[in-house]
Amino acid sequence: MNSLKIKRVYEIPSEDDGIRILADRLWPRGISKQKAHLDFWFKDIAPSPDLRKWFDHREDQFKEFSAKYKKELQNNEDVKKVLDILKNQNVTLIYAAKSPIVNHAIVLKNFIEHLRKNL
Q1: What does DSSP assign to residue 97?
Q2: pLDDT tens for residues 48-83?
Q3: In this structure, what are the phi and psi dihedrals at residue 91, rounded to the nearest 5 degrees?
Q4: Between the CA atoms of 17, 85, 20 and 75, what dihedral angle is there, to the nearest 10 degrees?
Q5: Looking at the chain, which runs of residues are DSSP E strands?
Q6: To 5 degrees, how large is the angle CA 79–CA 7–CA 41?
């Protein structure tokens, strides 16, 4: 089974990343397209602008944010694309948030893995 990982855009790409997908609505600060080494940019897989602004990466709101974000991900076309890619290749979801434990990529990865198990 192919792997699904998350990685900050500022980390060095590795061969086992597979297909690298930027899962942010905004382009990360201070990084060029060449340095990012992306295969795709799925803006619509990221939280909506309103949800992103409300959340503001506040740890005390992460649980509620996660629930709201999962609702947004229901029937998301980009989620379906990631699931299709995973059938043949590893996928790394790339994000720019500073915190490795309070960010939307964690929720997204868990959401996709849950769907994948139940297919």
Answers
A1: -
A2: 999 999 999 999 999 999 999 999 999 999 999 999
A3: -130, 135
A4: -130
A5: 4-8, 19-22, 40-41, 91-95
A6: 45
- DSSP letter at 26 equals S
Torsion over CA of 81, 3, 46 and 96, rounded to 10 degrees?
A: -140
Tell me how far apart the alpha carbons of residues 17 and 108 are, in angstroms, rounded to a whole number.
17
Joined together, the tokens standing for residue 103 give 């960010």
Q: How far is residue 11's CA from residue 52's CA, in Å, rounded to a whole number?
A: 23
Per-residue pLDDT tens digits for 31-51: 999 999 999 999 999 999 999
Tokens read off for 45: 């897989």
Amino acid (1-letter code) at residue 46: A
Answer for the pair 21, 40: CB distance below 8 angstroms, yes or no.
Answer: yes
Question: Tell me, what amino acid is at 28?
Answer: P
Contacts of 98 (CB under 8 A, 6+ apart): 57
